[in-house]
Write a structure and sequence with these properties.
Strands 3-2-4 form a 3-stranded mixed β-sheet. Strands 1-9 form a two-stranded parallel ribbon. A two-stranded antiparallel sheet has the order 5-8. The chain has 7 helices and 9 strands. Helix 2 packs across helix 5. Helix content is about 35%, strand content about 10%. The radius of gyration is 19 Å and the shape is globular. It is an alpha/beta fold and about 250 residues long.
């Protein structure tokens, strides 16, 4: 079966406000974005395993926004906001802590995902004191590191069963849509994406037939699942994955 690993973007565009605000957009390199957020969100004096766990979460959340085209698919001209009500805290123009910068250089192309999933985990987090959430507690991660937990153990304590994808490739941001419709007879990594996502969506919409084999081959069963998906979501049920269905 072909392996599908999302790319790391060379650059990311940040909206300096809430989604609908009339705020400036800034484009920075992806490592610089992660260094900025990490330097704004966590303390450089924390144990290294806590810092690593938080950086993995920051990278994964940002990559999920890029990979799923969370904002761009809704008509916005940016990838993520700096509003903590929606995304992660980014302070345009700030400096970075030396040890955080070093760790980000090591970790920026590693990310979390659920086993069997393609997309990076939307790894939510909060400070764990004044704000709590269903995700990583920043201060809690430091407490666990002081108890001897390593970064992977900290992450699994908060996110459950996750895997770390290492050394993903880097490229410029492009639309995820492959450019041409996929249909019966198509094959390759893009079909793996379709099959994997259909199986995930079928957990919530059981009328979509689950695919027993994710093999990257667009056969009759994949076509039937695509048709069911299209019918549920008000798309033309032709069994072809054009841009709207993608």
């Amino acid at each position: 079966m072909p392996t599908v690993i999302p790319y790391i973007p060379q650059r990311i565009t940040v909206h300096l406000g809430t989604p609908n605000s009339d705020a400036e957009n800034v484009t920075v390199s992806f490592p610089d974005y992660v260094k900025n957020v990490a330097s704004s969100e966590i303390y450089p004096t924390w144990d290294e395993d806590a810092l690593r766990a938080n950086i993995y979460a920051i990278v994964s959340f940002a990559l999920n926004r890029v990979y799923t085209e969370w904002y761009r698919s809704r008509g916005y001209d940016y990838d993520i906001t700096n509003s903590t009500a929606y995304d992660q805290y980014f302070v345009n123009g700030r400096s970075y802590f030396t040890n955080i910068s070093r760790l980000v250089d090591e970790l920026f192309n590693d990310f979390l995902r659920r086993p069997g999933f393609v997309e990076p985990l939307a790894a939510k987090f909060c400070n764990g004191t004044t704000v709590t959430c269903e995700g990583l507690s920043q201060w809690g991660s430091q407490n666990l590191a002081r108890q001897g937990y390593n970064s992977t153990q900290i992450l699994r304590n908060y996110y459950g069963r996750v895997e770390i994808v290492n050394d993903a490739s880097i490229r410029g941001i492009t639309s995820s849509y492959p450019g041409t419709p996929l249909r019966r007879g198509s094959s390759g990594p893009n079909v793996v994406v379709i099959q994997t996502e259909l199986n995930r969506i079928s957990q919530n919409y059981p009328a979509i037939p689950k695919l027993a084999t994710v093999d990257g081959i667009f056969g009759s069963r994949t076509e039937a699942s695509v048709r069911a998906f299209q019918e549920i979501f008000g798309l033309t049920p032709d069994g072809i994955v054009g841009k709207a269905t993608w």
